[in-house]
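Entry 12.
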Amino acid sequence: MTATAAPSPSTSTNPSHPSVIAVAEQRSADVQLKVADAITKFAGSMAFVYAHILVFVAWMLLVEKSPWPTLTLVVSLEAIFLSTFVMIGQNRQADFQQKKADHDFVANELELKSNTELTKMIADLTREIHQNVCPQPNAHPSVAATSPGNAPAT
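Predicted 3D structure (tokens):
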């Protein structure tokens, strides 16, 4: 008996949302967006934290006797740039969410229209079947004469 490995997320057969595909294609076509994505990805990783620990320790021990003024300037500038990348990421996420919501709205409206049409067709078919199986009392004289409402009084 052999065990099979579960499919990895990258090889799964689940279809991606059309908005996800569109945003990925747009981002892969723009060099600036690729650079911003790479920086954001690195800045949000533990490798970024470890690199800063190493650089700051080396700076304080090896580069300057009094590292604090220069180090403060560098850290402040880095914070400015990183906050900009955070805002770029938030704008990108808001853009994506809006595109996804727009797509979902259109898809839901189309589904609602289809469901409404199907419901009307089912109602029409039900009416037609009902008329064929249970004819109206006035439709056939033989049925009208024997229906309980028209029975002779005794």
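Annotation: The chain has five helices and no strands. The CA atoms of residues 52 and 58 lie 10 Å apart.
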